[in-house]
Design brief:
globular; four-stranded mixed β-sheet; 273 residues; alpha+beta
């Protein structure tokens, strides 16, 4: 079975409070981004163990800690799963604020559920996904949602960006989650995110913001530089996604924007939502 785990974008991201469990409460709207990895799940030959092979962008850390393997092991605690061969071809940048690793885990759960006819509901799959990471559960339904608490509790939102042109720029800058959260102070959101996103796209630059962007740009000016280039190219709205360092621009209308002059080392995705 072959599946294509997609990335996500954050439309606004507010850090609203400290939790007793050490995490932060947040508010954001998650939307799917069709920049994808490829994950293959096959039955393993008789007498062999479960394996994971990797190609594409190098993934730091030991393969045994990969979220796809963790998804398999999580289901295996409750089901008598046979051994499988997993192969992940990594395309979505790592540590970019695009949720690529979380998507890989969620799609692994989906694929294993279908491959072995486990008949798990989406609600049950979401519960498994929450055990793997805060935003993994989003990728189970993979539809725009208002996310809150740790980013793993969702409310439906009426938001249709279908066909909106989008450019995502990843400058290859790694900002650790610990550093990003360490530079942000929780506060009450300046605007009601759900109300702001009901307004025309052109108004979002004045009302929809990402707390990480404000906190990190003074230390990493390239984030602000990319954002300004996207606006200069005609973006109606541009922002950091998640805790970065990917920056995206949304462009109204039917035409893709012209290419932006960027260093060859940057990864760029251009397409439609």
């Amino acid at each position: 079975m072959l599946v294509f785990p997609n990335a996500k974008l954050n439309l606004g991201l507010y850090i609203t409070g400290q939790r007793p469990d050490g995490f932060r409460n947040l508010e954001s709207v998650f939307v799917p981004l069709p920049w994808t990895d490829a994950l293959e799940v096959l039955p393993a030959p008789a007498g062999t163990d479960t394996t994971l092979t990797l190609t594409g962008i190098p993934i730091p850390g030991e393969p045994a800690t990969n979220l796809c393997l963790r998804a398999y092991k999580l289901l295996k605690t409750d089901f008598d799963l046979p051994a499988v061969q997993l192969h992940l071809h990594k395309v979505v940048p790592i540590g970019a604020g695009l949720g690529g690793g979380s998507a890989d885990a969620a799609f692994a759960l989906h694929a294993l559920n279908e491959q072995f006819a486990l008949n798990l509901t989406v609600d049950t799959l979401e519960e498994y996904a929450r055990q793997l990471g805060s935003d993994c559960a989003f990728f189970i339904r993979n539809k725009p949602v208002f996310a809150y608490e740790k980013g793993d509790v969702f409310k439906a939102i009426s938001l249709d960006l279908t066909g909106t042109a989008c450019v995502v720029v990843y400058p290859g800058l790694h900002i650790s989650t610990a550093e990003a959260y360490g530079r942000v102070q929780p506060r009450t959101p300046r605007h009601d995110l759900r109300l702001a996103l009901r307004e025309p796209l052109e108004t979002w630059r004045h009302t929809v913001s990402n707390d990480f962007e404000e906190a990190l740009t003074p230390y990493y000016p390239v984030l602000g530089d990319i954002k300004q280039q996207l606006y200069a190219a005609g973006a109606a709205y541009a922002s950091l996604s998640g805790s970065g360092s990917a920056v995206y621009g949304l462009f109204p209308g039917l035409e893709m924007p012209p290419p932006i002059e960027l260093p060859a080392t940057y990864q760029v995705w251009r397409g439609r939502l």
